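Consortium newsletter contribution from the modelling node. Members have asked for a concrete example of what our holo predictions look like. Here is one, prepared for the fe (ii) ion complex that several groups have been discussing at recent meetings.
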Amino acid sequence: MLIKQVVIENAAKRQDVRVTNGKFVAIADSLTPIADEQVIDATGKLMLPPFVDPHVHLDATLTAGQPEWNESGTLFDGIRIWGERKQTLSHEDVKKRAIQALKLQAAHGLQFVRSHVDVTDPDLVALKALLEVREEAKPWMTLQLVAFPQEGILSFPNGKELMTQAAEMGVDALGAIPHFEFTREYSVDSLHFVFDLAKKYHLLVDAHTDEIDDPASRGLETLATLALETGLKERVTASHTTAMGSYNDAYVSKLMRLLKMADINFVANPLINMYLGGRFDTYPKRRGLTRVKELDQEGLNVAFGEDDIQDPWYPMGNGNMMDVLHMGLHATQIMGYTEIMNSYRFITKQGARTMQVIDNYGIEVGKSANFLIFNADNWYNTLNERAELLYSVHEGHILVETEPANTQVHLPK
Ligand code: FE2
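And here is the predicted structure:
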């Protein structure tokens, strides 16, 4: 396959890209087609590495409205409605919805997804289903699974045993929910337990950390300390960390030193945290997001995740990371022109680093030929116009192909 004259990641000049046997084999100003080679004329169009969603919940996905819509939009009504829907959860039900959501994501250029799976279920129904989905989707989607203790590890009956069982069943990462544990002691102990388990089974760690507007929620400092002291460092991710948006500056300046030493990853989920955050505030009303701009400026790795796609906690979502990014840039005020131009990194390579798939990620000779081509000439225009995804190519196979729309606007001159 030969792709002609693409703009690779906002580059100043156009280049040709050759793909053979699923790998990038040449990138040059001009390459001549060889016999029987498929040629894609992409003159002046933007080529990016694939989108990455490092944080979604595929077990609850596409259940919004079942058995009722969450009309109040509160977290508590979400929990109540999910409690009812959870009664009817079955293997086939989870599998069908997860694959449907993954296909929505694939249609929007996602090729790497990390899903949390609730393991506070004595039968582990969702985990068993998603382990099958991970295998079935392999030809078109790299799916990682995180054992997510939605109701706590020490605060849920047999929480430790369920996490251990999930580790033995082959999850990629271990989660935690320190801010939800009954006490501060449980919170700290739950993280120690998770790190011990991660070391034993050689797993990544990705904890829902301080997803609350309470400035006293300080699971992050424990997570970062353990990441540093165990040496797991970049194999550890702090998801949400929304309490950090409410911490005082003196504490954050002290915390930042530790975070940089620990070198952990962060995932912010702008759609969901803008929607659920600040719910207990009157006015002024907090945005409920972590300090994305400050973490990024300090050189820490921050990615954006979609979190929920049409479930009891969030009524919208269609698998398009451009919507996630668009909200994220507004909410965190990362909107200088240069910042917007470079912002695709939050939904591409920074997510790939979070998922620890970065070694074989990116448009470089020798790496797997995974890429997207958009119907625009740079990222600013792609994001602003929600430009069509002309191609999503995975290991040399075309997964998505779009015929550009031809809209006629009949307005007076
Ligand atoms: Fe989440």
